[in-house]
Amino acid sequence: MLEKIKSLREKAIQELEASADSNSLEEWKRTYLGKKGFVTQLLRQIGSLPPEERPKAGEAANLLRDELTQLYEEKASAIKEAERLQAAKAQAIDVTLPGRRPQIGALHPVTQTLREIIEIFSRMGFGVYEGPEVEWDEYNFGLLNIPPEHPARDMWDTLYIAPPYGKDGNMLLRTHTSPDQIRVMELTKPPIRVVVPGRCYRHEATDASHEWMFYQVEGLAVDKGITMAHLKGVLTTFVREMFGKERKVRFRCDYFPFVEPGADMAMDCIVCGGKGCRVCKFTGWLEILGAGMVHPQVLRNVGIDPNIYTGFAFGMGVERIAMLKHKIDDIRYFYANDLRFLKQFRA
Ligand code: PHE
Prior knowledge:
The chain is 40% helix and 18% strand. It has helices spanning 2-18, 22-33, 38-45, 54-91, 109-123, 137-140, 179-187, 228-243, 296-301, 318-326, 339-342; strands at residues 127-128, 134-136, 171-173, 192-201, 213-223, 249-254, 259-268, 285-294, 310-317.
């Protein structure tokens, strides 16, 4: 029996030393000290030994149980400490790691273009004014010589503001920045030289060249003796600053109720230089804005005497300018929030 105890002890100690984590340690405990463990079984067998062997065997078995229990406890606390250290290490901050780069944003391509446009006009002495996107019907249409039943309203259908703010369709999302011609002329007296950047809205089926929300830059100059020559000079200068000194421009008659005469301006195609290609639809020209001499009735509407003052006005679509500048073939990219598109315009 004593032999048996001795070899059990050796085996137990050897296995205890080999167990390296709390799982194998608990397994060891069950194997030796558990209810059906070897040591427990051994203690049970003492009673069936011949009486002269019992005291020595009993003492040795009890000693073994106590010794193994103590060894178990020591090992358990060592393992616990080791595991705690390891967990702490896993969480520790490695101060030698390089830092994470912050994500740096960039201006939206339309904002970049807008700023470039404004910059060019401010070099020519134009100030900047901004008006409301939610506008009165009277400013968007009426005061611009477009009465309620005027057919020109058809090309500027928009979104109307419901009561209680708007009544009888008298409040809307502006369809162009032209209402700010009125606002500027109400606020200041000639000489006026101003550009008005801002968002506009239209009831529009979207396609590659139409969005229901877009940006315009309006321009207005009112003074004594302003003529069509000033309009042409300023806009030709703008085109050459924006798209290159070699650009040619073309003015053709166009109709807008708030100008007389009215014109559309085009420049020779920046892709083919006027020979004709897909971008200019084989015409050699790209239309970029509407313009004209401020209608005498519009001047009268704001209390400016058209016999003393004249003016020119123009309005351009900012997305269209950005599209030509960067050769973008679909306006919908601008507002689709696709970073693959937007990241190409990091300035
Ligand atoms: N407001 C016109 C449009 O949106 C453009 C324009 C502005 C035309 C000023 C003439 C003068 O189509």
